[in-house]
């Protein structure tokens, strides 16, 4: 295919706005998928994607389109996730694209992730094609959705907004024509030395690491000696090819093409997304600028349930290949043994990783209470200690002050939702910076703790605004906060994995809720098990987990005093013995912490 007839594009949208359905329709209309192979959500092939109805991992597919001008075009669709936690995956896909389709649901209008993804595309200087989906729905509000798109960017006033139904295929042919006419052909010279960007990868048990690449310059051939420019490691590719959407081997890839390279490497750490691949014998001089390092928002411990630490380590290494936003490092817990402290982009990201570990790798895990990263200053020498593990928080007597991270948050909402949204943000310890009226919309700017954003804030915002709030956040700074560590003792023994950090104002209520939940999820023993919550050495909540069977000494049966005293002595002895016994904590115990 001539380079002038190649188009590399992505579809960006808020979750549930029909991105996967439009992708399916494009593949059907270009005969990429034959009718007998048709199925819904073709690019969402993982179980977790189908169960949650969201795209988690970006996929790529080459489509051949016969345009109205009589020419054939190669349309490379690079899929993108839609959930707010996966913005980093969107940025990876857009770095390999030359244009985007901005898809908006006519029944819901412009929403939070619509704005966030639009801003990523704008920052990459990509042409944007606005498309309104679900116009055939009886609840469609086409005119108001158009107005919201115009308010997003005045430049859309000079464009025709395409109105489609991805489900029925109505006007999808106009989208294909717009891709051909408005997305530019890729730049690059196939006579220059090879320069290819790795924008994604995955691990195959037989083939090793398979890198997804965009060829910027030069040509790539099978069985070619290649070099990674980050560490100058050399390998010979075993196979190259294209996505149809399955892997299809090909003899060569040229400047502008999107394809894959079977590296044959077995070490999951050998390939880094954002790296540049070049020819070993005729290397390019400068690498392609990579991505900004991902900033984890939520941290949690992941431990193997059945002591298969090596299996968990290998699973995380393979997962990090196609999810470069997952960070992890080894740690050891006194109660759970060897595991990993992992960084995630949000709570939904954590949930997806947990489900993929079980479904893709068969590894059952225990996940501890998530938290954010704090700056702790020690009194003695004003030393700064960065803490992302609650059990590593220094003793309160040694601490001078604690700083927690804040985001600058911009929320745009209809005027009738202002009071409810402001109440929600105030409950989340937000500090109002500015309020700006924009016709029927109000823009609120807040300084908001990341710890509050990470735990279900986005879903609550959608609920109180009926889905009409747009949400944009960027890191602001660390600020001093009254933060305390809540330690949990089970049977008079501290359990470091249940420790969590919170603001002092929330400590009492959270501790009371937690110990009462633990009463019903903690494994029962033959004798009552006390569960206590401590803050700064003071017990602020306590509950006794009832025993498996009734205490005969207080059962009401008529026994003489000496027999009751003898029974109590035996119970006390057993109680003291059991205080040192190991109590295995199932995942539901840690879920109780997540639940509050």
UniProtKB/TrEMBL annotation:
Pfam families, alphabetized: EFG_C, GTP_EFTU, GTP_EFTU_D2, LepA_C
Tell me where it mainly resides.
Answer: membrane
Cite the Tr-type G domain residue spans from the record.
4-187
Topological category with respect to the lipid bilayer = Peripheral membrane protein
What InterPro entries does the annotation carry? EF-4, EFG_III/V, EFG_V-like, EFTu-like_2, LepA_C_sf, LepA_CTD, LepA_IV, P-loop_NTPase
Keyword field contains Secreted: no
Name of the top EC class for this enzyme: hydrolase
Which PROSITE patterns does this one have? G_TR_2
User: Where is it located?
Assistant: Cell membrane
Has keyword ATP-binding? Answer: no
Give the EC number(s) under which this enzyme is classified. Answer: 3.6.5.n1
- Give the top-rank taxon of the lineage listed in the UniProt record for this protein: Bacteria
Keywords from the named record: Cell membrane, Elongation factor, GTP-binding, Hydrolase, Membrane, Nucleotide-binding, Protein biosynthesis
Q: Which reaction does it catalyse?
A: GTP + H2O = GDP + phosphate + H(+)
Instruction: Tell me the residue numbers annotated for binding GTP.
Output: 16-21, 133-136
GO molecular function (one):
hydrolase activity
HAMAP family the record matches = LepA
Q: Which NCBIfam families match?
A: lepA (TIGR01393), small_GTP (TIGR00231)
Q: What PANTHER family does the record point to?
A: TRANSLATION FACTOR GUF1 HOMOLOG, CHLOROPLASTIC (PTHR43512:SF4), TRANSLATION FACTOR GUF1-RELATED (PTHR43512)
Q: Which family does it belong to?
A: Belongs to the TRAFAC class translation factor GTPase superfamily. Classic translation factor GTPase family. LepA subfamily.
Q: What is the recorded function of this protein according to its Swiss-Prot or TrEMBL entry?
A: Required for accurate and efficient protein synthesis under certain stress conditions. May act as a fidelity factor of the translation reaction, by catalyzing a one-codon backward translocation of tRNAs on improperly translocated ribosomes. Back-translocation proceeds from a post-translocation (POST) complex to a pre-translocation (PRE) complex, thus giving elongation factor G a second chance to translocate the tRNAs correctly. Binds to ribosomes in a GTP-dependent manner.
Q: Know the name of this protein?
A: Elongation factor 4
Q: Which organism is it from?
A: Apilactobacillus apisilvae
This protein's gene is called lepA
